[in-house]
Write a structure and sequence with these properties.
- It is a single chain.
- By secondary structure, the protein is an all-beta fold.
- The chain has one domain: Roll (SH3 type barrels), CATH 2.30.30.30.
- 0% of the residues lie in helices and 42% in strands.
- It has a five-stranded antiparallel sheet with strand order 4-3-2-1-5, with no helix packed on it.
- Strand 1 and strand 2 form a beta hairpin.
- The protein is globular.
- The two termini are 13 Å apart.
- Pfam families: KOW (PF00467).
- InterPro entries: KOW (IPR005824), Rib_uL2_dom2 (IPR014722), Translation_prot_SH3-like_sf (IPR008991).
- This is KOW motif-containing protein.
C-alpha cells in the first residue's frame, strides 16, 4: 500500500481514515476544501453511499480498491 501526503489529496482518491471519529472507515475523497484557518477538510463517500466529513490530516490516500 502506497501512502500519499495530505497535500496530494484530490477528488476521487481512495482513502483510509486513521484518526478522529470515523477512524477505520474508508472510501473516496470528494469536496476538498481549505478553511480560513488553513485546515484541509474533505468529504468521504463510502462504498454504501454514506458520506461523512473529516479533516485531511485524519486520512491517508491508498491505491487499493475496496
Amino acid at each position: 500500500m502506497e501512502n500519499k501526503t495530505v497535500q496530494n489529496l484530490k477528488d476521487g482518491d481512495q482513502c483510509l481514515v486513521i484518526g478522529g471519529t470515523h477512524k477505520g472507515k474508508s472510501g473516496r475523497v470528494s469536496n476538498v476544501n481549505t478553511s480560513k484557518t488553513g485546515h484541509i477538510t474533505i468529504t468521504v463517500e463510502q462504498k454504501n453511499s454514506v458520506r461523512f466529513k473529516t479533516l485531511g490530516k485524519n486520512v491517508v490516500v491508498t491505491n487499493e480498491e475496496e
